[in-house]
Design brief:
- Its EC number is 2.3.1.225.
- It is an enzyme of class 2 (transferase).
- This protein is of the alpha+beta class and 446 residues long.
- It has three domains: 2-85, no CATH class; 94-216, Nucleic acid-binding proteins (OB fold (Dihydrolipoamide Acetyltransferase, E2P)), CATH 2.40.50.140; 250-421, no CATH class.
- It has twelve helices and 16 strands.
- The protein has helices spanning 13-35, 54-63, 143-150, 152-155, 205-217, 228-234, 251-280, 284-310, 320-323, 328-335, 396-422, 429-445, and strands spanning 2-3, 6-7, 71-73, 89-91, 98-107, 115-124, 129-137, 159-173, 183-195, 347-348, 354-356, 361-363, 368-370, 375-377, 380-384, 389-392.
- A five-stranded antiparallel beta sheet has the order 7-6-5-8-9. Strands 10-11-12 form a three-stranded antiparallel beta sheet, with no helix packed on it.
- A hairpin with a 4-residue loop joins strand 13 (368-370) and strand 14.
- Helix 8 (284-310) packs antiparallel against helix 11 (396-422).
- The radius of gyration is 42 Å and the shape is elongated.
- Bound molecules: zinc ion (ZN) (2 copies).
- Residues 356, 358-359, 369, 376 line the site of one zinc ion.
- One zinc ion (ZN) binds next to loops.
């Protein structure tokens, strides 16, 4: 589940196995080798084989001293599933397949033959398990059934391993609750194999010691690493091997142009109107307050616009620090050569972190993947279509400033209009200048 603080639940089986090998088993072996001591507790990793090695598995199985009762097909790409893993498949030859039932013996009279055995199974209720009749009855066949008939009380209420025999015949009594000879015979049946051994009492310390000393006599085969896929999966995917970022939305490209056009037009108007007015009307407020303010505001607006379009948005860039470790689901995606991960949801991590399966990097809480900019940004607020950029806590100040400057520009224009209604008009400058210039000349000629 967790190893050295690393949450392994979202890791695939292969990664978990590799961790067990590299962080538990091998260090233990190395430590023992260093101390030149032996240990009574042996840790071994089961061998896992690829699906295409099925032939080898069958060959190995034939040589096993204890025989084999089937194959377990384990999914390797799915994260840890607590309880039952629905993706895991256990296969057994049909003749080896057994099902466990709880037996309920129904006896009728003293006659040993008067016996029917109900097969019960447990259903998980809301809070407790409920034992219910499957509708099936035990086939009256086999050696174990003979034993049951001799001593029904030893079998009643016990868990028994049963095997389906197509050749068996089963008697289904018409009365489910008490013994009856009325009923019908059906083809096929569950034949009793053996009773399940229930776990015995907890062994005491001496027993455990004895067991361990016996275990130490058994020398395990040397560790073999037969999981190529582990190596393949764990091979380092370098930053440059990560799939390209998804293509940015068109708004990212046309947004800044729209902003540039609208802001330029507004600046032209907000600066132009007071400037023209100051040429025609004489007003100290216009000259000493409004004009300087609009020019400063215009300059600031240009700086702010540039900073929003080209400045820091809190975009998370790929680096060793944020791209690793690559979760296995993402790793599989990368190794399979699939850059597109629309069907793979983001992967949760520790401390509110999550892994973006579009950027292929880890981001902290509060970060968001913008579907227009196609990047993860920290402190995301919204994507602004007007500027074509994400507005985050990094450029929020600029964003608010440019909105405030809009009101400054609008206010300057309204004030200018009010002023020109009341301020005295200037004497037309060109006329005044020419009269001054002309006068001495005129006088000269006069
Ligand atoms: Zn992202
Ligand atoms: Zn964005």
């Amino acid at each position: 589940m967790c190893m050295c603080g690393e949450d392994l639940t979202h890791r695939t089986l292969l990664y978990r196995l590799q961790k067990a090998l590299s962080d538990v088993i091998l260090p233990k072996e190395q430590l023992l080798a260093l101390r030149e001591s032996s240990d009574n507790v042996q840790l071994m990793l089961k061998d896992f084989f690829e699906l295409w090695q099925l032939g080898d598995v069958t060959a190995i199985a034939a040589e096993l001293p204890h025989g084999t009762d089937g194959l377990v097909f384990t999914p390797v790409m799915v994260p840890y599933a607590p309880g039952t893993c629905p993706a895991l498949l256990k296969w057994k030859p049909a003749e080896m397949n057994t099902v466990d039932f709880k037996l309920q013996v129904i006896q009728g009279g003293d006659m040993k033959k008067n016996i029917h055995v109900k097969l019960l199974v447990g259903f998980k209720g809301k809070e407790t398990w409920q034992v219910k009749h499957t509708g099936h009855w035990l086939a009256k066949m086999g050696d174990m059934f003979k034993k049951l008939r001799e001593d029904p009380t030893a079998f009643d209420g016990k868990i028994a391993e049963c095997k389906w025999h197509a050749s068996a015949k089963t008697f289904t009594p018409s009365d489910q609750l008490k013994f009856t000879v009325n009923g019908s015979w059906e083809d096929g049946g569950w034949v009793l194999q053996r009773l399940r051994e229930l776990p015995g009492p907890v062994p005491d310390v001496a027993e455990v010691r004895e067991m361990l000393s016996r275990l130490s006599c058994f020398s395990p085969p040397p560790l073999r690493r037969s999981y190529d896929l582990v190596d393949e999966l764990q091979q380092d995917i370098e930053l440059r091997d990560l799939p390209a970022f998804p293509a940015k939305g068109s708004n990212y490209y046309w947004g800044p142009w729209l902003a540039l056009a609208v802001v330029s037009a507004f600046i032209l108007e907000a600066v132009g109107i007071p400037t023209l007015a100051s040429q025609s009307y004489k007003s100290d407020v216009l000259e000493l307050v409004i004009l300087p303010v609009v020019w400063i505001a215009a300059f600031t607006a240009v700086v702010v616009l540039v900073s929003i379009v080209f400045g820091e948005t809190g975009e998370i860039r790929r680096s060793d620090a944020v791209c690793y470790p690559i979760p296995d689901r993402a790793r599989a995606l990368i190794l399979l050569g699939r850059g597109k991960s629309d069907d793979l949801p983001n992967i949760g991590g520790l401390n509110g972190e999550s892994y973006c399966t579009r950027c292929f990097l880890w981001r902290s809480e509060g970060a968001h993947h913008c579907s227009t900019c196609q990047r993860c940004v920290t402190g995301f607020d919204h994507h602004c279509s007007f500027f074509g950029r994400c507005i985050t806590r990094h450029n929020m100040c600029s964003f608010r400033t440019i909105i405030a400057l809009f009101f400054v520009g609008a206010a300057a224009q309204i004030l200018t209009l009010l002023i020109i209604n009341t301020a005295p008009a200037r004497t037309p400058a060109p006329y005044a200048a020419s009269s001054l210039m002309m006068e001495p000349v005129g006088r000269y000629y006069n």
